[in-house]
Design goal:
The structure holds two protein chains of two kinds.
Chain A lengths: L21 H16 L63 E7 L9 E5 L16 E8 L5 H9 L9 H18 L6 E8 L4 H4 L5 H15 L3 E2 L5 H9 L3 E2 L7 H6 L11 H16 L18 E6 L3 H13 L6 E5 L6 H15 L3 E5 L2 H13 L5 E4 L8 H6 L2 H4 L2 E5 L11 H9 L10 H18 L5 H9 L24 E12 L6 E6 L4 E2 L17
Parallel strand pairs in A: 3-4, 3-5, 5-6, 7-8, 7-9, 9-10, 10-11
Antiparallel strand pairs in A: 1-2, 11-12, 12-13, 12-14
Helix pairs in contact in A: 3-14, 3-15, 5-6, 8-9, 10-11, 14-15, 15-16
Chain B lengths: L1 H28 L6 H28 L6 H19 L3 H24 L6 H25 L17 E4 L2 E4 H23 L1 H11 L1 H6 L4 H27 L5 H18 L5 H21 L3 H18 L25 H4 L2 H24 L2 H26 L7 H18 L4 H20 L10 H16 L17 E2 L3 E2 L3 H23 L2 H11 L1 H6 L4 H27 L9 H14 L4 H21 L3 H19 L3 H21 L18 E2 L11 E12 L2 E12 L3 E6 L5 H9 L4 E7 L2 E2 L5 H6 L2 E4 L11 H8 L7 H14 L1 H5 L10 H13 L5 E5 L7 H16 L3 E5 L3 H7 L2 E6 L2 E7 H5 L27 H4 L5 E10 L2 E11 L4 E6 L5 H9 L6 E6 L2 E2 L5 H6 L2 E3 L12 H8 L9 H6 L2 H20 L15 H15 L3 E5 L7 H18 L2 E5 L3 H7 L2 E6 L2 E6 L1 H5 L2 H8 L3 H17 L1
Parallel strand pairs in B: 5-15, 8-13, 8-14, 11-12, 12-13, 18-23, 18-24, 21-22, 22-23
Antiparallel strand pairs in B: 1-2, 3-4, 6-7, 6-9, 9-10, 14-15, 16-17, 16-19, 19-20, 24-25
Helix pairs in contact in B: 2-6, 2-7, 2-9, 2-10, 2-11, 3-4, 3-5, 3-9, 4-9, 5-23, 5-25, 6-7, 6-9, 7-9, 7-29, 10-11, 10-12, 10-18, 11-12, 12-18, 14-19, 15-19, 15-22, 15-23, 15-24, 16-17, 16-18, 16-22, 17-22, 20-22, 23-24, 23-25, 23-26, 24-25, 24-26, 29-32, 39-42, 41-42, 43-44, 43-47, ...
The chains are: A alpha/beta, B alpha/beta.
Amino acid sequence: MRGQKNPRQLPGARGRLLRGYGPVICVVAAFFVMALVAPTVAPQRLVGATNQNTTPSGDPGPQGSTGATTVPTGGSSAPAGNSSGQTATSAAGSSPASAHAVACSGLQIPGDVYAPPCESWSGGNNGGATALGVTATTVTLALRETAIMDIASVVGGLTGQEVQGAASPADVVRTYQVLAQFFNQHFQFYGRKLVIKVYQGQGSPATEILGGGQANATADAIDEAQQLGAFADVSIEAPTFAQALVNQKVIATNPTYPPQSFFAQNAPYAWGFWPDCNKVEAMDVDFVLKYLKGLPAVYAGGNLKGQPRKVGLIYGDSAASCGTAAVQQLAAAGMPVTDARSYPVDISTLQQSAQTITSAFASEGITTVVDIADPITTFFMTNYANEDNWTPEWVQSGSVFSDTDWAGQLYNQSEWSHAFGPSTAGSTESARASAGYAAYESESPSTTPAESSVDMVYDQLELVAIAIEMAGPDLTPQTFGEGLRAYKSDGAGADGAWAFPAGTYTAPQDARIVWWDPTATSVFNGAMGAYQSNNARYPIGDFPAGSPPIFKSTSP
Amino acid sequence: MIVRATAARYRQWALLVAGGAALWTLSKVFPQSWPSGIVTQGAFFGASAGLLAVGLVLTYRSTRMINFAYGAMGSTAAELGVVTYQHAHLPWAVCVLIALVGGALIGGGVHVVMRRFANAARLVVTVATIGLLQILVGLQFGIAFWSHANPLVTPFSTGLSTTNFTIGRTVFTANDLVALALAPLAVGALSWFLLRTDSGTAVRSMADNPERAQLLGIPIHRLSRLVWILVGVLAAAVMILNGPTNGLPTDPFVSVGGVFMPALAAAVIAKMHDLPTAFIGGVGLGIFDAVVSYNVHKEALTTVALLVVVLLALLVRRWPTTRGDADETSWSLSTNSRPLPPSVSRLPEVRVGRAAVLALLVAAAVLFPLLAAPSDIHTVAGYVVLGMAVLSLVVLSGWSGTISLGQMAIVGVGAVVTGDLLVKANLDIFLALAVGALAAAAASALIGLPALRVRPIFLAVTTLAFAAAMDQYFLNPSNYPSLIPVSILRPDLWKRFPLGSERAMYYVCIGMLAVTILIVRALKGSRPGRILQASRDNPRASAALAIATVRTRVGGMVVAGLIAGVAGGLWAVLQEGVGASSFPTQDSVTLFSMAVVGGLGSIYGSLSGVAVTEFLIFIIGRFTTQGTSFTSLGTGALLLGVLLVFPGGLGQAIESLRDRLVSALASRRGVELVVGAAAGSEALPSLTLSTPPSLTTSSNLVLSCRDLTASYGPLQVLFGVDLHIGENEIVALVGTNGAGKSTVFKAVSGLLASGGHITFKGMSLQGMQTDAIARCGVAMMPGGRGVFPSLTVAENLRLGCWQIRQDRAAAAQAFEEMSDMFPALRIRSQQQAGNLSGGEQQQLSLAMALAVKPKLLLIDELSLGLAPSVVSQLCEKVQEYHQAGTTIVIVEQSLDVALRLAQRAVFLEKGAVRFEGATAELANRPDLLRSVFIGSTPAPRDAEGADGSSSSSRRQYTDLVCQGISKNYGGIAALSSIDLTVEPGQIVGLIGHNGAGKTTLFDVISGFVAPSQGTVQLGGIDVTNVAPHHRALAGLGRSFQEARLFPSLTVTETIVAALDRHLPSHDWFAAALKAPPSAESERSARERCAELIELLGLAGYATTPIADLSTGTRRIVELACVVAMDPAVILLDEPSAGVAQKETEALGPLLKKIQQHTGCAILIIEHDMALLSLLCDELVALEQGEIICRGTPVDVLSHPKVIQSYLGSDELSAQRIGGRLASTDAAV
């Protein structure tokens, strides 16, 4: 029946040249000609600049990485020096401006092991506007003001729990401003001052921490880059926002636990003092192999206690590379994971994912859960586990703040009393005893900081300050990165040792071993439940052999 | 039938038991893959999903809409119970009770909201439930917030938690057992209620035909409240009893995507019909989900598995194809934007106004980025891209009626493909966008394919599952790190303008939106838009007009996919990458909500929907710290509010405003805006009123209407009608087609709000509900849809006795009387009423109206589509009831019937009474009784082709040959070995009793029903296995008994659609670009259409939507369509049904003339013997699917068998044939 001629066809354009399609053909042809002659393509630079050697000293970067980022011209830094005998210079030693910078003895802040080597500035030309957000007198840092700015409150909000001691946005903003003054006073910025520009953000950390909110995050990043002209951002940088920032060439100073590849692909625009998930994974693998392999599950509860260990591993899709690497390394070391499960980091399904994973693990008789999940999933899982009367060992890894007291307090306590594992975090101390609090008090004795955030803010600003000082007067994103490459803390402080050796982008270099005590009072917020540790720190991937120092005396 | 239904029920439970045994065996044989504990846990969880599915089905069966708020109804009520338990520390049982009461209250509250949507399209109501969902989730949060409780309820212990047991390694508690015990009890109780009680039957009837239910005195609002309370309690029970084990969902889209999705899938598996299947499906899905989750170590993969199951369920299941299920119109939005009449749009003020508005919009769009901050420019550019995505929904859902709740996933496909091409190949952005669009179009078509088999509403479920799978698995950078472009460098436009600037990017987005608007407008105004809407409105009629409905709908999906794909590509470039969760499921739902808020059928309305919704989200986000919850409340309230005030969305509001302005302008300029019935310049005949003696006193008045006015939206139909009916009268209400006769009935019975005064036995009926009026003793038998198609005949009859159901004996007696009165109904008592023939449905409808012996009976078209003998019988019955004391008003097109029944007649024309007096007097008023359509205009040039030759001279003569056609339905023979030949140029009449198989034979010939045996040949070619639209292309035309046509198209658009096979250009591409082939094709079609409109006197209706036409006028339009289609063989199914007698008399000569000019062959089903006698060369009489006689009209009509079984031997039949023959001859 097809193709039958229709004798009653109405008059149309059939008889015309090209059957009336001439204009269409012309438009299409013009389209292709335009695409050939003047194509709309990206400028000739590679997308996703990577971390090709950013230090003249020959830091090779990760294997297989390629990049097109310009190698900084001003760098001449030697390997990181410190006050204990090594020479420490800024990363801009050979630039004209650097002639005015002279190394002095000791650390920039005496007694602060994280402070960079002392540098003095005799004034003069510092290169002026060397990069976006940099002038002769200022370095602009952007701070996004959102409804919730305290990371504990963000996580608490997602789990519906009230976090004790959480700070208001106004307190957090003030803490940033005051601490910026502190670093302006005590660090060497070669004639410049840190200026924190606060703006009302459209995005929400609570959404972004679970991978959403791309449009608003991008809008905020654009605001920072184009409206504020920021050199770096110091807000809570959940993965979505961090990606938006680096896309806008604004330095993200503390993305929350992405894989190392994220930093590598976006170098030199992303750095952090929290570990990347590869470090978390390396710690966990080392911990499990050193302390759990081949032994019964003595730390489990109920009828799992003393059973031969069956390991289950859980990780979010956003940390898939770390999760699969852990599985492979454990298997290669002769301790196969019985069940490794990933889940989509999506608020709409987290609860259901946690439930099904818990059921599966319980059904399989998993005795030991290696938890590289986000705290919200862990929160759900511990509740479901408790309801199922399933009490495994929980090997917490410090992934996404799970090694903080406030996170541990969110979880089901009868389950979490079986939690232990490695942590890069420093020993928990009273907010008022922290370096951050002291710094704040020294600058603004008449006000009080956001206690729950002051240490985090201090660490974040210190990392920025370190990098700027180490970069030297010729401050660019490249020299910022070189500065960090050249930096190494003067031993281990409360947060352990910091450094950024080639191929790494996050500060922690060592870890301690912690366990959860639901009966202890947290010095962080005074609430019940706290991590305990002997506070001995070991290089990541190098825990000592022997029995793990857990559920024992807290003396080192 | 009852035995069969019971057997089916046993089979279901046997299946459940067998399934359980199989699972147990699997858990023993493959303990590693099917652990018994996991399977049991899946069954437990699935039981909850199954119960939710049962609630969904119950809601669907009572309202015919999918309730997306269902999960939230339960969780909000459960939140009350849990908060009380955890904070007030009351006993668990008390808290469960509180939750159940809460569920009942929420159900009642939802009913109050839903009642406001009583007259809205089902799609609108379905979307309203999305708004309701958001509000309920906000409330759930509010309950926790105000009671200082944790809004996130995780598993908790109750007194029952201490009692536990283990299966495999999985621990279960007494909480689980209680929840499980509820399941069979609830399913059994609800099934019993729905299937075994009068109230349950009434509930089902409400879904089929709420107006008819009200006319029978069924209090649909009260029953509806009962259903909502029941489902509310059920949802609350499911949620609260699962709370201790599973916690409660809080996020609106957890309710949709997580907990709710399996329930929705189970309901779809049960075809939204069968409660036990829904429950069993839920259990099955729960087990499936648990086993998949256990064995697949990537949680996101379970979303893919669910998608596959849903797709398979839709594709594999057999879907009902009864006539009753064919009603799809209420799923479409009848609010397509309507252009201004040409007379108005040509006014200089209108043209200047349009230009000014356009200039303002362009200026705003151009100037905005010069004034705004970069981030604001970026944000607005994002809205612009969303606008493009919404336009894709206008095409897909607004025109094509295919509901997509996963459109952002399609956008995501475009984003990823475009991004990859930009990043990896550094391709020109426009080429990349084109390729991305093609990929999205392919995805759109692929996911839309199930829509070709099922009702488009069910595609909502598929697309929702698709959105979840895409978001969590396929578009997840973790799963495809090398495929998802997480970072994209914006290109330089033509190597000159860097798009890194937000301003430049904004202008590109605005430009693309403008191009998209132009393309969508072009499509709307040409063939693609027309045939998409036609295929949506009435697939059978579309196919009969040679429109390939499947190809058309796929075309709609492809176009929507292309637009969404381009939007996706732009989105990726704008956001400089695609991240995890860039296209979350909830964004798809939000996008759809935006489209509905704006108005799905309206281009500019839907765009305004994006603007308003985003603005609201922005404002809420700016001023609250509880962003998600309050955003949920705000957007939900907005959605509901807009739908309540403007069911057609903001587009409708804008259009109303425009119309007001234009009306004022037009009246100032003296331009007539009236359309439809009141149109035309013809002078009305003078009034001739003669008051019958019976009405001299008001004491014996039964019905009195004074100064009655009524409108359908803006179209006023009645203009001050005065009508007075005395005690025990029979009055005939007659008039031209579209005069407002049925509207008078609707006003009296309360179905239509009216002005003026209506009293019944001295009691004012103004403001009374229809069911209350019915209970006063006013019964109405509606014309056309008078039965409940999905109910059995017996159930229909039982509902007819609704008002006397308390008196069991009286009800049983009435039932028996009706069954005796209409023996055909007794024979078919267990068949679905929708499967009865048109005439049988008419009988059933009358039986239902008569069952309670009303005081006043309003009969709309007694003889519609009935065999002469049946008409005689019915007339006798009506007279019997009249003699028993019932006052009767009858709307009748047949003057003969009116003459026989009524002493007095009232003649209406153009919404006013033009004559009132003795019926016999009316028969002598040719000034009144005249044809206003057919024959009212000069002789046509109808058959002349473009070259001036008649088509008969150019056509190869085509004949129709049916050989040995048989058709069986479930063992019952509808047709038996029918041999029928229609020679070229011959006119053959098909007569027979209602239910004799005439329409079934037409369905077989036109390809809508496959014969069990036999062949159909058209022009010597065997077309038995050829699709209907291909038969139409080959020259087979068809009209339908119900003449439903395409409700949302105007008369002009409908006739142009009928010209489809003659259009020189069918090219969508040319139409989108308004290229010459399409433009010229459209022009020719509209010229030809204008000729036909003039020919059939439809000029006053040219821009009137079909939905606003009366049945008779639709018949005339359908005739115009048949003429436009110009087929070689025409099948006419009761062309005179519902048409005024004078029009019918003019119809014969017209058809004859058409036949002579075109040389076509005609096969016609008709009960008007006069018409057939005049017209036909041969008559064929059918009886119970067999040919009993054939020959010349004289021979057949005098054949004893025909007289006995069909014509009847009474006076009326003879009169109808003989008298009409004479008058028709005169007309010729």
